[in-house]
């Protein structure tokens, strides 16, 4: 089979030049972060950094390493005028951005970082926004709904490093050839199976779930004689990128809904750099993403680090889960 690199794929697809620069830059971040992860255990870099981020979460040394890689390469890309990261409180303006700079990169440099100390899978997630200006970027410029994203992607650092990209139309998957240090096309037009029989949720939160979440999962657990009429399997990787990559490959539904424990913050996962980019990818692959009652991509954001409940994956499975939200008595979002 002829080998198609990310670069040749972008040429063949006529990806617009600024977007191609951003995709190439994120791919380079993925390669550099992969290398950092490969040596982290041996060099004792897989532990805590001794600091907390803006959300009060303990930072790992590699959260900071990955963040710095994105900032350095993003600033050099020439097309970004601002960056927003899970690890930074405010918008990070790109100093001396060139005249072509009109995009913002909103990103989670390392997702699932609690897996670092156990050599588990982690990822990076990014969203690309067209803010139409090179300088003076404000929160209002960046607080766009998910439907306005011009592109999104993630990198999964598993046994192999995988890059998944979308411009909102279709989804393309690349694998890293570590010897050649380049991403190679694995699959174009990735589609999520409409139905599946696998769910992903942190079951330890059972006692905090709202009634609709409890109802859906209890019915999944009741197997083929229950109301859903089929047996379900369960998986939980503790890294959204790893869980959603599995779902992209073979279907299923991932749930991190708002519950009693997260309602004060509006949920657990972050809208701008976790839920929105993943929802753009999953919808472009024929799947769906909802809070239970609202399409994730339609939410009007009010804060860079806003959190949200999310039910995402195979379309029929998400619709089934959301039906419990339509049917059960409130309170829930
Ligand atoms: P991050 O490491 O960027 O803070 O994100 C971790 C997120 C997400 O990737 C994962 O699905 C979830 O947190 C895991 O949550 P639990 O601690 O409840 O397993
Ligand atoms: Mn994350
Ligand atoms: Mn993170």
| Global morphology | globular
Our count of helices gives 8
What is the H level of CATH, i.e. the homologous superfamily of the largest domain? Fructose-1,6-Bisphosphatase, subunit A, domain 1
Overall domain count: 2
Structural class: alpha+beta
> Which whole number gives the mean pLDDT?
95
**Low confidence ranges:** none
Strand order of the largest sheet: 4-3-5-6-7-8-9-10
Structural overview:
This protein is α+β, with helices and mostly antiparallel strands. It folds into 2 domains: 6-188, 2-Layer Sandwich (Fructose-1,6-Bisphosphatase, Chain A, domain 1), CATH 3.30.540; 198-326, D-Maltodextrin-Binding Protein, domain 2, CATH 3.40.190. 30% of the residues lie in helices and 24% in strands. The chain has 8 helices and 17 strands. It has helices spanning 6-12, 17-40, 61-76, 139-142, 211-221, 240-250, 271-284, 315-327, and strands at residues 48-52, 58-60, 80-85, 92-93, 103-111, 122-130, 151-157, 161-166, 171-177, 182-188, 198-200, 233-234, 253-256, 269-270, 288-290, 307-308, 310-313. The strands form 4 sheets. Strands 4-3-5-6-7-8-9-10 form an 8-stranded mixed beta sheet, sandwiched between helices. Helix 5 (211-221) links the parallel strand 11 and strand 12. The radius of gyration is 19 Å and the shape is globular. The N and C termini lie far apart (49 Å). The structure holds 2,5-anhydro-1,6-di-O-phosphono-D-glucitol and manganese (II) ion (2 copies). One manganese (II) ion (MN) is lined by residues 108, 111, 240, 274. Residues 63, 86, 108, 110-111, 113 line the site of one manganese (II) ion (MN).
């Amino acid at each position: 089979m002829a080998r198609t690199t990310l670069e040749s794929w972008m040429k063949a697809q006529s990806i617009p030049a600024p977007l191609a620069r951003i995709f190439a830059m994120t791919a380079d971040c993925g390669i550099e972060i992969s290398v950092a992860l490969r040596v982290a255990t041996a060099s004792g870099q897989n532990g805590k950094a001794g600091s907390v981020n803006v959300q009060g979460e303990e930072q790992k040394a590699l959260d900071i390493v990955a963040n710095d890689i994105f900032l350095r390469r993003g600033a050099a890309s020439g097309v970004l005028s601002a960056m927003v990261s899970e690890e930074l409180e405010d918008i990070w303006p790109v100093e001396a951005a060139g005249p072509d700079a009109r995009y913002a990169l909103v990103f989670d440099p390392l997702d699932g970082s609690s897996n670092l100390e156990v050599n588990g899978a982690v990822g990076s997630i990014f969203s690309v926004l067209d803010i139409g200006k090179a300088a003076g970027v404000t929160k209002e410029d960046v607080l766009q709904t998910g439907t306005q994203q011009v592109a999104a992607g993630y990198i999964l650092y598993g046994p192999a490093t995988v890059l998944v990209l979308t411009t909102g139309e279709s989804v393309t998957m690349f694998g890293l050839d570590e010897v050649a240090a380049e991403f190679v096309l694995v699959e174009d037009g990735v589609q999520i199976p409409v139905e599946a029989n696998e769910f992903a949720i942190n079951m330890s939160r059972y006692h905090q779930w709202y009634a609709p979440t409890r109802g859906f999962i209890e019915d999944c657990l009741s197997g083929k004689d229950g109301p859903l009429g089929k047996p379900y399997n369960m998986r939980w990787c503790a890294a959204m990128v790893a869980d959603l990559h599995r779902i992209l490959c073979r279907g299923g539904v991932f749930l991190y809904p708002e519950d009693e424990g997260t309602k004060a913050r509006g949920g657990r996962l972050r809208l701008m750099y976790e839920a929105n980019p993943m929802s753009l990818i999953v919808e472009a692959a024929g799947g769906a993403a909802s809070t239970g009652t609202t399409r994730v991509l339609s939410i009007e954001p009010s804060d860079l680090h806003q959190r949200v409940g999310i039910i995402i994956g195979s379309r029929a499975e998400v619709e089934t889960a959301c039906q419990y939200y339509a049917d059960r008595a409130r309170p829930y979002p």
